[in-house]
Amino acid sequence: MACHSRTLKNILTMLGLIALLSSMSGCDTLQSEGLPVAPGHLVMEKVMIPAHFKNKEGVYTANLDAIIVRPDDDQIHPLVLINHGFDPFNHKLRYIDDFQRQTMEFARRGWVAVAFSRRGYGHSEGEFVENVKKDCDVPAFITAGVVPTADMREVRSFMAGKSYVDASRMIAVGHSGGGI
Length: 180
Known about the structure:
The protein is an alpha/beta fold. The protein has one domain: Rossmann fold, CATH 3.40.50. The chain contains three helices and five strands, in the order αβββαβαβ. The protein has helices at about 1-25, 100-110, 140-160, and strands spanning about 40-55, 60-70, 75-85, 110-115, 165-175. The protein has a five-stranded mixed beta sheet with strand order 1-2-4-3-5, with helices on both faces. β3, α2 and β4 (about 110-115) form a beta-alpha-beta unit.
């Protein structure tokens, strides 16, 4: 019974994050009007972020496909990492394009927004390592959170080196399993 309680809590958390991202997906101009960032002045970059991971052979580098959107105002801004969901069957789908509107909306609100594909997803390099069981056991939930966290740490570390990022002020949002 406790497992079902945790599952329900996780589902409710994910639904809240899905609602947040869904409410932002149609926000091209209406919610952006009157905000302090100069309207229409955003910088968008598609990049491959070098990330370092451990495996049985040691440390290897995998480039993670990402889109970075930020205000073009020569200021330092907080960081938001936008994370896609878990998909064990179609993990080669390109996820970063799905979050282009969300990255733009965060940037209009004064954030440096990074949507990226984790290892093995989309155009990102590296093996797909998120083999999470679909049953209700604690190790499955731990794996579902730990594996993507390593990818997020690497993206945060890369972005912390950018002159326009205040990495001490950061949030992470995600869709479905990316919100765990």
